[in-house]
Write a structure and sequence with these properties.
Blueprint (H helix, E strand, L loop, with lengths): L12 E7 L2 E5 L2 E5 L2 E7 L3 E6 L4 E15 L6 E7 L6 E7 L4 E5 L7 E5 L4
Antiparallel strand pairs: 1-4, 1-10, 2-3, 4-5, 5-6, 6-7, 7-8, 8-9, 9-10
Length: 121
């Protein structure tokens, strides 16, 4: 078994955003999918992705399989790959250190989702 990857503390936290609406084509019909509020909880070893309105979590305490740092200085970006339990699909997250924005790359036909780090209360 592989050891879990550890993230820097500055990447950890709660990220909130809205997944845009999109269309799914099935059997020559277009089915509209409404926008949904999305929350991503990043800790040192795990990531949880949850939709707020229906209360559904497709990834709950998923393990981080790969961490790649790209760029230098303030323009650093971190690419994370997260594996969910009993899933073949990897979730890909991109964190920009300068803007503190997390981008969840959607699996087709889902669009990419832009999430901002919530402040401490």
């Amino acid at each position: 078994a592989q050891a879990a990857k550890k993230l820097p503390k500055k990447l950890c936290g709660t990220f909130l955003g809205t997944q845009p609406a999109y269309m799914v084509s099935q059997h020559n019909q277009s089915i509209p999918i409404d926008s949904a509020a999305l929350s991503i909880e990043v800790s040192r070893n795990t990531v949880s992705i949850c939709y707020k309105n229906p209360g559904f979590c497709p990834v709950l305490n998923g393990s981080i399989t790969a961490v790649k740092k790209m760029g230098k200085g303030r323009n650093k970006t971190w690419n994370l790959q997260v594996r969910s339990v009993n899933s073949l699909i990897l979730e890909e997250l991109i964190f920009n250190s300068k803007t503190k924005v997390l981008i969840r790359t959607g699996v087709f036909p889902q669009p990419n989702t832009l999430l901002k780090k919530s402040r401490k209360k």
